[in-house]
Structures are given as structure tokens and as C-alpha cells.
Amino acid sequence: MELKFQGTMAVINDTHNPYQDQRALREVELFLEELKPGLLVKAGDMCDFYPLSKFDKDPARKDTLQDDLDSTHRMNTRQRSILPNARHI
User: Where in the chain are the domains?
Assistant: First the structure.
């Protein structure tokens, strides 16, 4: 895929929602609010998908796949409200 873009861009990856560090993510979002990039690239592992993991499961974790998706959707919605004019990919 070829992407032609001139301007300021930011890249976020590995948030692993819903297990993200909320304070760290808030700092990133404050930075984005100040930077106002024209392009925000979400480079992978935004959602943890713990229920689908092949790794050992901790029975104390009760989150469902839908919980993971909902958390990631809330993060994306919040970031779109912070950067309404940016392209999000």
C-alpha cells in the first residue's frame, strides 16, 4: 500500500486494550491533542484479544472478546474526538 501524506503524523501501537496503562494512554492522548497530527497510524495490537490467545489463561480474567472490542472502540472514539480532522489508519 502506498500512502502519500505531507504533514505531521503520529504512530500508536501495542495498547492491548483493555489491559492498557490508562495513565500512559492519557499522556499519549494529551500529546496528540497538543501535536494535532494530520495522520494517526495505529500500527497494531490495539486490542489484546485475550479470550482468543493460545497462551495460558488466567481464570481470574473474566473479560470477554466483546469487552476487548468495546474498550478498543471507546479508545478509538476518544482519539477521533481529540483529532477530528486527522486521518486515522
Answer: 9-88
